[in-house]
Amino acid sequence: MLSQRHLVTSLKAFRLFSASARSSLDLAHHVFQKPQAGESNGRPIIFIHGLFGSKQNNRGMSKVLASQLGTTVYAIDLRNHGDSPHVPEHNYDVMADDVENFIKNRNLKKPVLLGHSMGAKAAMHLALRAPDLISAIISVDNSPNKTKLSEKFPAYIKYMQEIENAGVTKQSEADEILRRVEPSLPIRQFLLTNLAREQSGQALRFRIPLAILKESLPHLGDFPFTQSDTVQFGGPALFLRGTRSRYITDKSFPIIRHFFPNYKLMDVDAAVVNFMKSLD
């Protein structure tokens, strides 16, 4: 029989484990301020990148949104990306925790969450879990479905690890290795934005924790809620998809409508500004 002492010790250990497993992180970010002149709709935007991305990738669009909408845009680095901390746990529960912590720590009033791919699922998860915290979401190229990720993602990580193992010192050498798995130059250039050199002359290494992200891949096609759940986000929700998107298809509409009854779907990438203006 478990003694009282052992029970108390076990419960304390469980609480410590639970707290550490779900402790939120302070995320690295860039702030793009609204201009002095012009109207503001009063809704800050939190721009959330996708897998292998960072706040750097969203600088240009963040500047455009801040300028055209007269508001403040926060481009963030999710955990295990960019300049944010590296931790073993990487799933939508903890990513939503991090974004919620970011909002509350800065006293942001009803921000709009703009997420791409992995960042879109993190945004959708937070919207369903804490609907009163935000005013609207914009999901770029993802839906609240459980979807198998492209087989290219584990292949990317494999060859990125091969780049590190090869000890390359030039980006051209890294690109040559990555070319074996990805023929598209823009995609290779995007992946290689994560390369960094600590000191002159040293080998290039990726600033993202490849081993952690490799282990997390099975979780990233998942979604924490199913159609049997009654949670909903009743605020405005815009879903943007590319015409060849495999993550937002016509079969996605029922589950999108289930979770986000006030949704719009657009097939054009330039729809964000018009959607934001329509919120007034």
UniProtKB/TrEMBL annotation:
<keyword id="KW-0378">Hydrolase</keyword>
<dbReference type="GO" id="GO:0052689">
    <property type="term" value="F:carboxylic ester hydrolase activity"/>
</dbReference>
<dbReference type="InterPro" id="IPR000073">
    <property type="entry name" value="AB_hydrolase_1"/>
</dbReference>
<protein>
    <submittedName>
        <fullName>Mitochondrial hydrolase</fullName>
    </submittedName>
</protein>
<dbReference type="GO" id="GO:0005739">
    <property type="term" value="C:mitochondrion"/>
</dbReference>
<comment type="similarity">
    <text>Belongs to the AB hydrolase superfamily.</text>
</comment>
<dbReference type="InterPro" id="IPR029058">
    <property type="entry name" value="AB_hydrolase_fold"/>
</dbReference>
<dbReference type="Pfam" id="PF00561">
    <property type="entry name" value="Abhydrolase_1"/>
</dbReference>
<feature type="domain" description="AB hydrolase-1">
    <location>
        <begin position="44"/>
        <end position="268"/>
    </location>
</feature>
